[in-house]
Amino acid sequence: MNIISAIVIALLIVLSIFFIGRKFSQKQKYDKEKLSPYACGEDLPAEEVRINLEKFLIFALYFLIFDVITYIIAVSFFERGILPAIYSIIALASVLVLIFGGWHK
Prior knowledge:
The protein has one domain. It starts with a helix and ends with a helix. The radius of gyration is 24 Å and the shape is flat. It has four helices and no strands. Helix content is 66%, strand content 0%. The model has no long low-confidence stretch (mean pLDDT 78). The chain has 105 residues and is mainly alpha-helical.
């Protein structure tokens, strides 16, 4: 069995489970209270509700950097010699700079 047929079989299994679950699941009725946003019981107009995403930006950047570092280290382990160790040391140093240099507020 090659990789294409394995992917197609896995996709068919996932889609069949999804559609069977959707067919037999309990349907939920949505009313006005269910669809309204939760704001501690306050009736706020929709235009006054703002979400401040600035504080999550640093965590999104850390997540992106950790993903890139993980990919670089995983790919570097296919190489022989000292190259994976050098990549690991550079990645660790960059993470330490981010942790200790990024929290200076």
